[in-house]
């Protein structure tokens, strides 16, 4: 073990996530849940007063609450007890610069999705990651759900045979009206191209469905055809995205992402069909998975229950029938990161099964957004440029 | 009341539907359920022996069991007690000729969907219908389900506001393997372009989803973009269809029809979203409808239960909580036809609310198939030519 | 085949079921659905004008519309083309006398449940049935549901091992308020001891749950302990019944019947547990059955789908995924009766699998009601006197 | 603020919960989730080596890892930086002595349920609590679930009117076979009267259903009639409990607790009916609540969604549609305890809405077990002696 990082918990810093920020708090809960991290430094807000107040509330020492991420990267890298990893939880357009700064300061990065606001930034970041050799974890949190792991394991193990059709959805309704005009939390920057990038619904939630489908099937679409719409007058980014997918393997798919589908609350769902079986999963009952071997009755596989395999059981915390959910899934990403960080310290490989989304998934997500925007503009099939 | 047709029940004939035929029996149950028809004549099979045996089994008098639909049309039209309406339940390519023959003989027609095998036939049939003034009922049976009627009434009444997005699906799995090669009931002709027409899954079940969506929303898509696939090697028609929809009103949609989606059993579903609300319906729980007024809790509307309106109640037979299903929905089409036939006899309009699919829906269905095939071939948006 | 009854359809008469009667119409639809009966005679109402009008509406010849069931039994028995079976669809207190009259006239009886209003009548009827040798079919309609048949077959076949616990429920909410005071259809006589007998909810719906549980498990409780309540002020019969069950085999159970459980619509459900497996069925999704072999994932068995056995398939009409429901289940009782009537004519046994509820089930139902009333009065375990 | 307890986090100790213990880890996650506690001391195991190893793993200083709870209570009470609250997570028969010791040492107690193994202990503990004035929190964790809070708020607010019927269930299947004979985790002591007390299923899970029903309705049953069974040969405690409930208000209820109901995984459910409405909640979809105002469509109320009220929103962490579950609910009990501890320090009342189960709920739970055992023995209604 390196002398510098020998404490029981991994020392963690945070950029963004000051008072009132939703996702920053989620990252902190995720980091705490399995007791693998200690939050010791932060550049929590661009507003110095809010940054300081937030730091105090979180028990961060005064001298480790920084006014800028650059100052933080420099100072923490120089400390004997400096942070080993930083969580970047700022809006999309502020992912690239801090990620680059910390990686170059020798500090691992856990970054909220999407990886960056543009493909160009993402490619540059990929180079930084490669050059620095530091870890980069992208919190595509749904890949931390046990039954998503279960699906992946089953597909890889041949349970559904050769992939034929993917039905991926992520539906919400919180942008049904022009809430960005009335100051709704999170709506303003998410509907602003300058801060969100080229994608609205497709970037915010479509990428989650895209990532989850790729994670589960082990295949990334080669081409897509998209029809993006901004239903709410005056909205600059899409709030609904209808997309056809084609895979190199011959599989096909449909991806639907909508933020105006009234009655849906983070309704991520995956239905995956092969020539030997089908799988169906819905976020609202995330501990349950329906599996149909062709010609047999559908089976209900539950987290930690009969039929659940090693990949899902690895990331389960409580017995079957006791619901786990969003925070547990998010925490699993943090736990996988922790396992990898520890292994990396020691020059080892992480244990069998440890997995997390990284720069490759980030690049794929941006390629997906760019292809969708281009396809919708040209009404033609567009190749994903990953 | 016309002297000829004064019996308590409407005299009904049938073309096709001999022993072993599935859909012919469904039509007969549907006709019997509400006691509005009496089956008195038939050309039940092209095989004379089977035709005769089938007729006897059904209680059709020997002299009214015909060797051909032409002979039947001529003879029945000449009888004082001849049939008033005929049900055509033959495979797709044999819908046009008998429909034309009976209409021209002055006999109303109830025809299984699709209306004909080709658009050209359908247009010609439309002319025949117009010229003869006889009724033509197309058994798009899902429009007979009470909660489908409920959705239509709610959308028309403004419950969801202006239509934005339509999510229509019809998924099955019975063509997952090459069952047409092993003599599976119904699989052979359905996968044969000569007998089914240009559409496979898209024609057999896609048209049902298309028709149901149009019935419910009151809008027919203006353009579509389709990606049709035959996953099973050697299959000549599509067994899975991924389709994007655009409406003249600005609404969008996705239609997915698949016969290789393992674990799905006639999984028709409709999810309809407007700027004020959303509706969700699934075939497997066909007596239940989910309605979400924007910003309010989702409400469960049940057939004949609280929240159900006049349009659904008109076509319900038993109290809420006692499931109705496929046969009842099918029977409703027959009941609507009966009401219209009686009204027509008397030169009256059918009662408020009576509705059934006809030639217009048939034309739309064929336009949908043709546009999908063309779009899939050219990878471009294609206008529906209705 | 007997000379008298050689027509294609079985000649059926009806007692009760005049205009406006709900259950009479259900019986007629059930009789028609599979085309095995022809309704040719009736004593449809005690009001002669209503009886005549109802008969005309149903196509019953004027001379076969009777003013009383006694006149009908006598006259029909004397006709060469007289009825072979009669359906009794009057309120509970009017089941005994007509059943007896027709049986003694040599005519089979299909009777709505409960068999009679009192145990004494039921015992007398049992003797009549034995002495006359005629058939007596009691329309405990839920035994006609395919998945109820499936459960019975599975339990009998050892799928759940030795029975341990039965959880049977039938919940409604239509008697939540004193609707009998405001003329609600069916509420008045159902809450009147003189016409319903000793049981309210327990008789009207509790017996259905009791019968269905016995049909499925093949076991009838030996003792019960009941707590009956009339929640609505002034109501004379129970509107909610909480009952513990003990079986001779050592199995236990709970039966809950309520007509004041707001939000429930004919919510019959059965959950059956043995030492090797469990089964779960709910009326609202009557085509689906959950089966859990101990230690394995729960399996979803669907009507006519993979996993469904011979007993369920025998009584299914349409493919899996096309919902069947209440009318189909009711019609199955009529079909089983028809098969048995035909076999009886010919001195044969009905085909393998044909089954219907009869006097034994009727006696058990009344014993259940009487025991529950007695137990609730004495707060003690009471033996069922069947 | 007291000088002693002025750190950002509340100093927490733990008794029991050493390596391999399930519930100890749940308590620690719950304590960490909202960052309100710091675990600084423990008597984690009666095995000194395991106690030490567990402490080291958890970051507890060597001098604060104790060999006995008595030593811990004494030493911690004497330290300036001693613990303010202790979590007792030992088996049932080891709840009383440590609870008493810490309370008398001036340290608040969070205790796993049931409060003690016997009613006599519980009464003595109640006196200790009263005399010491320290807080006693009993982790009946389901009361921390947002939709359970929602139900309670709705019932208290009159949403269902006057209570009539309670249907409470907790079903599992993990004791279907004699797993206690084969060393299954947790099975051995749970089926041993010496360590569990008089109740098997009724104590382990029946009390959860009992507690949740009481929490939600605001009423505790006055009498019960129980039929307890040990289905597995040789098992000394009940593994299935069928219970009728009577409330002083006139309401009735059924409580079913079973550990041999194959296919059930911690299937806690509550269905509550009043004269104006009904509520239905199931553990497997714990973020959803069905509410039916009499005569209106059922409404789906979701955590943090439309229709959710202040009581549920107070204890929600993430937006609607992102599942929360067991750990979050458990953590809420810890958060409520933390809020109360802080308020108590300052001599204030906790904020509006803060609530947690305590000694009163513990006494009720034991009274429930004792009454059930007595009733089952005597086959008679027994009054709960709370």
From TrEMBL, chains A, B, C, D:
<dbReference type="InterPro" id="IPR036291">
    <property type="entry name" value="NAD(P)-bd_dom_sf"/>
</dbReference>
<dbReference type="Pfam" id="PF22725">
    <property type="entry name" value="GFO_IDH_MocA_C3"/>
</dbReference>
<dbReference type="Pfam" id="PF01408">
    <property type="entry name" value="GFO_IDH_MocA"/>
</dbReference>
<dbReference type="InterPro" id="IPR051317">
    <property type="entry name" value="Gfo/Idh/MocA_oxidoreduct"/>
</dbReference>
<dbReference type="InterPro" id="IPR000683">
    <property type="entry name" value="Gfo/Idh/MocA-like_OxRdtase_N"/>
</dbReference>
<feature type="domain" description="Gfo/Idh/MocA-like oxidoreductase N-terminal">
    <location>
        <begin position="10"/>
        <end position="139"/>
    </location>
</feature>
<dbReference type="InterPro" id="IPR055170">
    <property type="entry name" value="GFO_IDH_MocA-like_dom"/>
</dbReference>
<protein>
    <submittedName>
        <fullName>Oxidoreductase</fullName>
    </submittedName>
</protein>
<feature type="domain" description="GFO/IDH/MocA-like oxidoreductase">
    <location>
        <begin position="148"/>
        <end position="280"/>
    </location>
</feature>
<dbReference type="GO" id="GO:0000166">
    <property type="term" value="F:nucleotide binding"/>
</dbReference>
């Amino acid at each position: 073990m390196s002398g510098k990082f020998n404490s029981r918990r991994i020392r963690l810093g945070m950029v963004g996530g000051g008072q009132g920020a939703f996702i920053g708090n989620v990252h902190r809960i995720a980091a705490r849940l399995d007791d693998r991290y200690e939050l010791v430094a932060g550049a929590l807000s661009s507003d110095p007063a809010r940054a300081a107040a937030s730091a105090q509330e979180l028990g961060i020492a005064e001298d480790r609450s920084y006014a800028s991420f650059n100052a933080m990267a420099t100072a923490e890298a120089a400390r004997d007890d400096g942070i080993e990893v930083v969580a970047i939880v700022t809006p999309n357009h502020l992912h690239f610069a801090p990620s680059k700064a910390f990686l170059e300061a020798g500090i691992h990065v856990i970054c909220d999705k999407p990886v960056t606001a543009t493909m160009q930034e993402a490619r540059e970041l990929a180079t930084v990651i490669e050059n620095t050799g530091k870890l980069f974890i992208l919190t595509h949190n749904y890949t931390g759900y046990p039954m998503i792991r279960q699906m992946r394991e089953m597909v890889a193990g041949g349970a559904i045979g050769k992939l034929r059709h993917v039905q991926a959805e992520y539906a919400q309704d919180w942008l049904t009206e022009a809430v960005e005009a009335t100051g709704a939390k999170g709506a303003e920057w998410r509907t602003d191209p300058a801060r969100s990038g080229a994608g609205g619904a497709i970037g915010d939630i479509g990428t989650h469905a895209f990532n989850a489908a790729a994670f589960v099937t082990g295949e990334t679409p080669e081409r897509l055809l998209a029809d993006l719409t901004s239903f709410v007058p005056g909205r600059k980014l899409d709030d609904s995205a209808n997309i056809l997918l084609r895979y190199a393997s011959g599989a096909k798919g449909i991806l639907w992402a909508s933020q105006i589908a009234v009655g849906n609350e983070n309704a991520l769902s995956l239905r995956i069909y092969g020539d030997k079986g089908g799988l169906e999963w819905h976020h609202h009952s995330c501990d349950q998975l329906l599996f149909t071997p062709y010609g047999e009755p559908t089976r209900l596989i539950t987290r930690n229950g009969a039929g659940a395999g090693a990949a899902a059981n690895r990331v389960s915390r409580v017995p079957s029938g006791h619901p786990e959910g969003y925070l547990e899934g998010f925490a699993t990403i943090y736990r996988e990161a922790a396992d990898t960080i520890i292994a990396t310290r020691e020059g080892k490989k992480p244990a069998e099964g440890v997995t997390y989304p990284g720069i490759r998934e980030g690049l794929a997500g941006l390629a997906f957004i760019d292809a969708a925007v281009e396809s919708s503009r040209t009404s033609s099939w567009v190749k994903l440029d990953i």
